[in-house]
Each structure stands twice: as C-alpha cells, then as structure tokens.
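Why should sequence recovery work at all? Because a backbone constrains its sequence more than one might expect. Tight turns favour small or flexible residues, buried strands favour hydrophobic ones, and helices have their own preferences. The token representation captures these environments compactly. In the example below, the structure is given first.
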C-alpha cells in the first residue's frame, strides 16, 4: 500500500443535535458531489464521485477508568475512478 497523507483533520465537541444538523448539511453536499470542509484557516474541497465505498464501524474501548464507544462513518473512493462498482456485501441500512 502507498504512503498515507492527512489532507484535513479537525475535532470538536458538539451537542448531538448539532452533530445531526452537520450530518444533514453534509448529506445535502454529498447529493451535489461536492464537499468543502473548513476549520479555522484549514480548508479542503472534495469532488466526490457517484459511487463510493461506505464503511460503518462501532468500537468499544474498555479502560480502567472509563469506557468509550466510537461510531465511525467512512467514505472511500479512488481518484479519477468512474467505474460502477458492484456491492460485495449485504447493504448497510438504518432501522
């Protein structure tokens, strides 16, 4: 595998309602295939293709003093790849 380079990274505490609002805005931008992320003076514009790989992961880390649960939502694509890829696994859904 090639070298991994972080293009943008930001982290902040928000209320669950604020996170839901942000994710709705992100979904609207995804519908347009264009996302611009900004945090302070950092900014990145992403041109996202119609087909991406969606990965959902939930992790639980049990420590001595606290237990943390992490929900990760990841989108992956190959730059310049316009091929229509078939799903290989069962579709992810929300109940």
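From this structural description, the recovered sequence reads:
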């Amino acid at each position: 595998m090639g070298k991994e380079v972080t293009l943008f990274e930001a982290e902040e505490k928000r209320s669950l309602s604020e996170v839901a609002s942000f994710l709705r805005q992100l979904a609207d931008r995804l519908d347009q295939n264009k996302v611009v992320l900004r945090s302070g003076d950092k900014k990145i514009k992403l041109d996202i293709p119609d087909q991406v790989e969606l990965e959902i992961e939930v992790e639980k880390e049990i420590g001595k003093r606290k237990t943390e649960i992490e929900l990760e939502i990841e989108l992956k694509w190959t730059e310049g790849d316009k091929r229509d890829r078939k799903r290989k696994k069962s579709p992810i859904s929300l109940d």
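A few observations help interpret the result. The first strand starts at residue 34 and ends at 39.
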